[in-house]
Specification:
The complex is a heterodimer of chains A (555) and B (360). With 555 residues, chain A is mainly alpha-helical. Helix content of chain A is 76%, strand content 2%. Chain A folds into 3 domains: 145 residues, no CATH class; 67 residues, no CATH class; 233 residues, no CATH class. The C terminus of chain A is likely disordered. Chain B is mostly helical. The longest helix of chain B has 45 residues. In chain B, the strands form 2 sheets. Chain B has a two-stranded antiparallel ribbon with strand order 1-4. In chain B, strands 2-3 form a two-stranded antiparallel ribbon. Classes of the chains: A mainly alpha (555), B mainly alpha (360). Chains A and B meet through helix 14, helix 15, helix 21 and helix 23 of A and helix 1, helix 6, helix 11 and helix 13 of B.
Chain lengths: 555, 360
């Protein structure tokens, strides 16, 4: 009887993981990553295939371990789960290689067969897929048996190797690494070599292992040297931020400016969504308004023909964005959260359609946009190099971070949080709802407006195509995955969500899919985000904590 | 004396400000209404278009409105029960259109479409209405059910994520290429009617779409009003806990609701493909928002309201660019503008109860 339930758990998990695996293969991920090497000959697609087996085993074992601690049943469930996943992948391989499915499923190509079969004949490849999956599933269980300290050390080692392996080409390409390599007289290939990978794994694992051995000492050091430590780390961060563009070179500076622009927008949206709780899906509208205002007032080729300098046009752009924020805010003041989302989404689309339409073409150029937006001058230096623009954006980000921090603790910041939690109670406490909400819209919009204005100056020309809904979704995604209401969360989110697709070009294809999946998974698993603000974490897990408390009092 | 008057001022201030805000809104609203009336009067006075054009546009509006109405039913039913906007419903519609394309194209290549078009179309509708419920029910099970008790923005954000996930999944699985529906020979003809000395052509396809829509709506009405599951759906929409106490399986009822809504959206998707010929993975986004607008127009949560709202929106979209004498590029602006105006001035919709304000 018990054996049956163990096997059933294995089959169930195997089917779920198998279905996910088949989906991932069919969207072409495995063949896309077949040319991306992690360490030596190991490709990312092999890693993906290995991960299916590991996931099948780990999930099955986890489910079984709720009822039993027996090692045998865990291994059995994992093996069954891995077997099912492997069989599903093998079947997929056989079907794709025999049946012409290409008319319907565009990725069911010979490349997919090649990526799944490792150059072996079909029957051998099918057996290999099944075997690999079962072995990995069992390995996942065995990994769970290790002492937690070893487990943690190994995990961090593997993560370090994976990250460095993926980014190896990028790291080697940095200006700094070129200098260092020249100095040392070594040359690095495009792929992390095997000895270096193994060495890194052992090194990081050992360091983590030893480090975790003395958690107490770590805390005491921090206590005694708190002030000095903070000062030193601030200086170090500042130095790193200033040196960054010249260390990483032109291409990466350009990427950094993009990350900076999204950080600006993220911090702005963070005020509207995170603090005031108003879900604004048309945030790109303010970005567009800022950009168009900058282009109109500063470009000699625009319909206004004024050609104001950047520094004069910037406050105008900010003002335009803030006013449009208030104008959008007035009609939607009374709407509930989800209606507000749809109306703002409509607003964003209206702005884009108007920018594209023939009606406004004489003024803002229709699909041709506005050309010849000049880059800013700073004490006689024309900042057309992304490395200079980086400093401009960095400065803007620092100002915005500072403002966000101050707003968070200010009277209006607390008013926003009160409004977010309960409008009626907030109003009863004497908060002016109209003023608080309009303020949130205006400040959020002006941050985006500044971002848009700098974007226009960076690009030199703007088109309606730059301002699609995906920008709004992108920004929403980075604040939600980073952690709503958390400033470090927003910055980290921007680095990963905007930076990663720039590094891994293949990922770009799956970018929006991954954002969608990311939003769903975050909402299901960790709605407070990866780096949550303390307040938000407490709010979202209040119920669980109370539950735990109740459990304690009962026992 | 002075103290009292100052207190009175303080306590009054917010009320005065809110009412100023509302007066301002009404002034803007009246201004928009006056502008619309002025434009229509101008167009009518110039007499640019004969009656044939107006009848033609009305018919086009009815066809378009039928599709909006069918999609809107899914929004409104889910909102009635879960009080959440199923943002991914537009993608469900798109999946229906895609499924219909692959079936119809298959029949086109195998020759069944030429030899037995009625059977081919019937099967296309069956598959187009059969695949979306699978996706809809899975979506509910995976993404929405665990979040039923979460703060209200959480399921909405989840739905937005699901929407983009589905859209991109279809793009990656079936390719980015635009899919062109094969021409159905029986339906490509038209009847010619003489109106005011000019010929008016009524396409067979538009008749088919309107007839199928009417059949589906009557079927839905009977299902909700006359059957046991319909009664259970109404009970769950009224009060989930009381319904559960009466022995109704709430999860099951919610699942059925998603399935029915998805099937209707799938039918609309197949119609969209037959009418506009082209479908692509992003085809669901704008109609999704339009259908939501229709649901709001009719009063969200209200089934006859969604039907009316859809037809009304389709009609407005077809007539407005002609009547107001503006570019058809701005068609979408008109519908989004209508959504905003309705939500501000009559959030209860044409037939509905107020849900967009405070309730829930």
């Amino acid at each position: 009887m018990k054996l049956l339930s163990v096997v059933r758990a294995g089959i169930r998990n195997g089917l779920i993981v198998g279905a996910v695996a088949v989906f991932i293969v069919l969207i072409g991920m495995v063949q896309t990553f077949a040319k991306r090497y992690l360490v030596s000959d190991l490709t990312l697609s092999t890693v993906i295939l290995v991960a299916f087996g590991l996931a099948a085993g780990a999930l099955a074992a986890q489910q079984v371990s709720r009822n039993t601690t027996q090692l045998g049943s865990k291994v059995l469930a994992a093996a069954v789960s891995g077997l099912i996943t492997g069989v599903m992948l093998a079947l997929l391989l056989l079907v794709v290689s025999q049946v012409p499915l290409r008319d319907v499923l565009v990725n069911a190509t010979p490349e997919m067969v090649a990526a799944l079969s490792f150059g072996l004949p079909l029957s051998g490849a099918a057996l290999l897929l099944i075997g690999l999956s079962v072995v990995m599933a069992v390995l996942a269980v065995l990994y769970g048996l290790l002492p937690s300290r070893v487990r943690r050390a190994l995990l961090e080692g593997i993560m370090a190797v994976t990250l460095i392996g993926i980014f190896w080409e990028a790291i080697v390409g940095l200006d700094v690494s070129r200098l260092v390599m020249k100095f040392l007289g070594v040359k690095a290939g495009k792929v992390l070599p095997l000895p270096a990978g193994l060495g890194l794994l052992i090194l990081v694992s050992l360091v983590t292992y030893v480090w975790r051995a003395h958690p107490q000492s770590n805390v005491t050091v921090r206590r005694t040297g708190e002030g000095l430590r903070r000062y030193v780390s601030l200086v170090l961060i500042a130095g790193a931020l200033i040196a960054l563009p010249f260390a990483v070179g032109l291409f990466w500076s350009q990427t950094l400016t993009t990350i900076g622009l999204f950080t600006l927008m993220g911090l702005g949206l963070n005020i509207v969504v995170g603090m005031a709780g108003l879900l604004d899906l048309g945030y790109v509208a303010f970005y567009a308004i800022g950009a168009y205002a900058m282009a109109l007032f500063s470009s000699p080729a625009s319909s206004l023909h004024i050609g104001l300098p950047f520094w004069v046009a910037l406050p105008i752009a900010l003002l335009f964005a803030a006013i449009s924020g208030i104008l959008l805010g007035i009609p939607v003041l009374r709407l509930r959260g989800d209606y507000l989302a749809i109306v703002t989404l409509g607003f964003g689309e209206i702005i884009r359609i108007l920018a594209l339409s023939d009606v406004l073409k004489p003024y803002i150029g229709g699909p041709q946009g506005i050309m010849e937006t000049p880059s800013p001058f700073f004490f006689g230096i024309q900042m057309n190099d992304p490395r200079y623009l980086y400093y401009l954006i960095l400065a803007a980000c620092l100002v915005v971070v500072f403002l966000s921090l101050r707003l968070n603790d200010s009277r209006i910041g607390r008013a926003w949080i009160a409004v977010r939690e309960d409008e009626d109670v907030a109003q009863a406490m004497g908060i002016n709802l109209v003023a608080a909400k309009l303020m949130a819209f205006a400040i959020g919009a002006s941050f985006a407006g500044v971002g848009g204005a700098i974007f226009a100056a960076r690009q030199g020309a703007i088109f309606p195509m730059d301002f699609t809904l995906f920008v709004s979704i992108n920004v929403l995604c980075l604040i939600i995955i980073g952690g709503i209401g958390s400033i470090p969360g927003v910055i980290t989110g921007a680095f990963f969500l905007i930076g990663l697709p720039e590094v891994l070009r293949e990922v770009d294809e799956y970018r929006i899919l991954a954002y969608g999946a990311g939003l769903v998974i975050m909402m299901l698993v960790r709605p407070e985000g990866l780096i949550p603000s303390a307040r938000r974490r407490l709010e979202l897990h209040e119920a669980e904590d109370q539950g735990e408390l109740a459990a304690y009092t009962v026992s | 004396m002075a103290v009292v008057s100052r207190e009175a001022q303080v306590s009054r201030a917010p009320i005065v400000r809110v009412s100023v805000n509302r007066i301002l809104l009404w002034v803007v609203g009246l201004g928009v209404a006056a502008l619309v009336v002025w434009r229509i009067a101008g167009t009518a006075a110039r007499g640019l278009y004969g009656p044939d054009i107006w009848i033609m546009q009305t018919l086009n509006g009815l066809v378009q409105g039928s599709m909006y109405a069918l999609v809107a039913l899914g929004y409104t039913m889910v909102y009635g029960i879960l009080l959440m906007i199923n943002f991914a419903h537009g993608e469900i519609f798109m999946i229906g259109a895609m499924a219909g394309y692959f079936v119809l194209n298959g029949f086109h290549q195998s020759g069944l479409l030429a030899s037995d078009p009625v059977l081919a179309l019937l099967l296309t509708f069956v598959v187009g209405m059969g695949v979306p419920p699978i996706v809809g029910v899975l979506l509910e099970r995976i993404a929405y059910r665990p979040l039923r008790r979460a703060p209200r923005l959480v399921p909405l954000i989840c739905a937005i994520g699901a929407s983009f996930f589905l859209q991109q999944a279809v793009r990656l699985l079936f390719g980015i290429r635009t899919k062109v529906y094969p021409t159905v020979a029986v339906l490509s003809g038209s009847w010619t009617v003489n109106v005011g000395g000019r010929d008016l052509r009524i396409q067979h396809m538009s008749a088919l779409i309107i007839v199928i829509t009417i059949i589906l709506m009557v079927a839905l009405y009977l299902l909700v009003r006359k059957t046991k599951i319909g009664k259970a759906m109404r009970a769950v929409a009224e009060d989930k806990e009381a319904a559960a106490l009466m022995g109704i399986d709430v999860d099951w009822v919610i699942m059925i609701t998603f399935a029915i809504g998805s099937a209707l959206a799938g039918a609309a998707g197949v119609m969209w493909g037959l009418w506009y010929k082209q479908v692509i993975h992003t085809v669901g986004f704008i109609p999704g928002i339009k259908a939501f607008t229709s649901a709001v127009l009719g009063g969200i949560g209200n089934i006859p309201g969604a039907m009316m709202g859809g037809l009304f929106l389709g009609f407005v979209e077809a007539i407005a660019p002609t009547a107001l004498d503006i570019s058809t590029q701005l068609k979408d602006v008109i519908s989004f503008g209508l959504l905003v105006i309705v939500l501000i001035f009559r959030p209860s919709g044409i037939l509905g109860e107020v849900l967009s304000g405070k309730k829930a």
